[in-house]
Amino acid sequence: MPQLPDLDSDRTLVLAFAAPGFSEDHAAFADLHRKYPTSCFTGCSTSGEIHGSELHDDSISVAIMRFERTRLALVSAPVRSPADSANAGEAIARQLEHPSLRAVLLFSDGLTVNGSELIRGINQVLPKDVVVTGGLAGDGDRFKSTWVIRNGAPAGGFVSAVGFYGDHVHISHGSKGGWDVFGPERVVTRSEGNVLFELDGKPALPLSKEYLGERAAGLPATALLFPLALRSQNGDDKRLVRTILAVDEAKQSLVFAGDIPQGCFAQLMRANFDRLIDGAAESALMTRSDGHAQPSCLVVAVSCVGRRLVLGERTEEELERTLELFPEGSRQIGFYSYGEISPYSTGRCDLHNQTMTLTTIAEA
Known about the structure:
Elements: E1 12-18, H1 27-35, E2 40-45, E3 49-51, E4 54-56, E5 60-66, E6 71-78, H2 85-96, E7 101-108, H3 115-125, E8 131-136, E9 148-150, E10 153-155, E11 158-165, E12 169-176, E13 180-192, E14 195-199, E15 202-203, H4 204-212, E16 228-231, E17 240-242, E18 244-248, E19 253-256, E20 265-270, H5 273-286, E21 298-304, H6 305-311, H7 315-324, E22 331-337, E23 339-343, E24 349-352, E25 356-363
Helix pairs in contact: 2-3, 5-7
């Protein structure tokens, strides 16, 4: 590990995004924890580590940022199964809530959680002017085991979050996809939470296999190539995207990273390479929506593993596009995820899939 700066304090943020295999080798995390014992140290496992405009595997990407006038708080909550998700979100929010709370950066185990319920628990407690962003931990395209950093070491089945307090911290966000819808729009006729059983009265898994064709043998990973766009009703311009995490052959069902509400409209999506990269750039431009001149900042990029699978060798193009749109001196770190957390445009946060979600952190 390279020489680490002497920046430890209770106002220091340490972010580390690492390949899933590091759960078996805690030495690097132990070194960071010893170097920064009083800092807020968090992060998670990935489906690829982002460092600047580069994408890496089997590595650890680290950012260290010390604030002068911003107070930080680090908290965690267990999420052992999807049924725990709302309670975990509420527990995180209750631990962090305070009149001076301005933002929350949150990372969750990517497989034991229902991301929609996690967000619902948070939104029930925190006011809508508190910016909540982050993502769900990844495990490549394996979907076997994910973790977050808790007490300085990898831990599965947890949510970890940092709260930012005071008027000197400036946090912006942006989230865009760039996928194209195709095929018929169908009605979700049977679902339970994040499990989809039927579309237009027909079992969901056979329909998915029909569209995937030969790729069906690679489920659930190959389903990342065709995410699902959801609309709550006709005429609604807001589309949330959902990615498959698992399949259940016995029940002919699909398990998603977030809720699939019964009665909503669902439509398949497919990739357009140039639009995906343009979507990443649009996400960067959204962080300037307040109209203020942006200082150099730390950029936390959370992009979906499905985008990486589609873009292949062009993946770094979206990282280059985002970083080049930020002021000189800005630094970018992040990871490829199983879900992204950010407001849709403004207001309360949502769970997204297949987006490039950016959080910028600076201090005035």
